Amino acid sequence: MVPSPLPIRIVEAEIVKRLVDEGTIVIALGGGGVPVSADADGHLLGVEAVVDKDPASILLAATIGIERILDLTSADHVKLHFGSPAEQNLGRITLAEATTYLTAGHFEPGSMGPKVQAAIQFLEQGGQHVVITSPEHAIDGFAGRIGTQIRLA
Questions:
Q1: Nearest CA-CA partner of 103 in 113, 92, 88, 115
Q2: Contact criterion met (CB below 8 Å) for 69 and 61
Q3: Which of 64, 47, 69, 55 is nearest to 8 (CA)?
């Protein structure tokens, strides 16, 4: 077991922003990225830890001014009452609704909880739109036709 600290800064954020601004499709933070710390001289040293991809992605997006995130997962939608007869897909919801559902305990910590928490943080930090859906529905999700669409209001 190793710790899973919240990321504080994305070391390569400036480079990623430059590439995005130039029109490059950037794939970053695979698995959350490599955790590092700086020594007294500012040299980066690897740390035995795991960085969760959801908060790392949100931090990168907020740092470089991204307005919309497509968060791909194994499910087509975030669900209320998951696994019960009352299970319900969430389509379009607001930041306030997402916060209410998370606080009420609708999303498991090892499942949708971190994704919804990251979406909330992203919107609170200036983001405009988060889509949570499966890779098979990425294009339709990004277009707003499927998945859970979370917006400020």
A1: 113
A2: yes
A3: 55
What are the pLDDT digits (tens) for 102-123? 999 999 887 899 899 999 999 9
Q: Per-residue pLDDT for 30 more than 80?
A: no
Separation of alpha carbons 119 and 95, rounded Å? 8
The C-alpha atoms of residue 11 and residue 64 are separated, in whole angstroms, by: 12
153: which residues sit within 8 A by CB, 6+ positions away? 94, 95, 96
HEC-encoded secondary structure of 81-130:
CCCCCCCEEECEEEHHHHHHHHHCCCCCCCCCHHHHHHHHHHHHCCCCEE
Which pLDDT score is estimated for 150?
Answer: 98
